């Protein structure tokens, strides 16, 4: 009987959390992300990821938020994800997922550089990463960049290298008026708590000044599933479970990079 009550309680909290995603995203001062309390201004945003499917597995709440607020989103993927020799397939899958997420295909750039090959233990050239990101910033008048934090959600070295490349760019071009935000990594319990982590994310965001942290709720989790399903080469049973139970499907906490 006790186990039945626990299961029912978890289901009720899960459903309540999904209902919460229908409400506005949260920041400590109620300031809308990328708005700064002013009239809504369209931003040119660059999302930098390491592999095809990162956008769907980790950043879909952010992408859905940006699109719903009319911001102009560019996607830069630093590799084709060719660790298993399926780089060309995964490249096309990213285009298909981007269409689901309503990122214009002409604003999706996928690199296949010898210095940025997918795989654990392969250190990417941070200076070259910084240079390529800077070229995209200049080419598209980017004023906001979003990427992984220094743990990279899963600890994947390629995710971490992307963060370090962006950090190098910001360090060397501090005079530029560029906002940079990182996706906050969580511990493993929160990572697999599904939409329940929405409440913990909102509470933890209250510990930060409003200008440094925003909590973005995924207003359309179904779109995240559809986008990830476009990555057919990766859409195996354990990734289906990941997308279902991962908190990153339902909420993104973005922290400003100083």
Automatic annotation (TrEMBL):
Q: What is the protein name for this chain?
A: N-acetylglucosaminylphosphatidylinositol deacetylase
Give the source's domain of life in one word.
Eukaryota
Annotated keywords:
Signal
Q: Which family does it belong to?
A: Belongs to the PIGL family.
Q: What is its EC number?
A: 3.5.1.89
Which positions carry the signal peptide feature in this UniProt record? Answer: 1-21
Query: What parts of the sequence cross the membrane?
Result: none
Keyword Signal recorded: yes
User: What is the originating organism of this protein?
Assistant: Vitis rotundifolia
Q: Does the keyword Signal apply?
A: yes
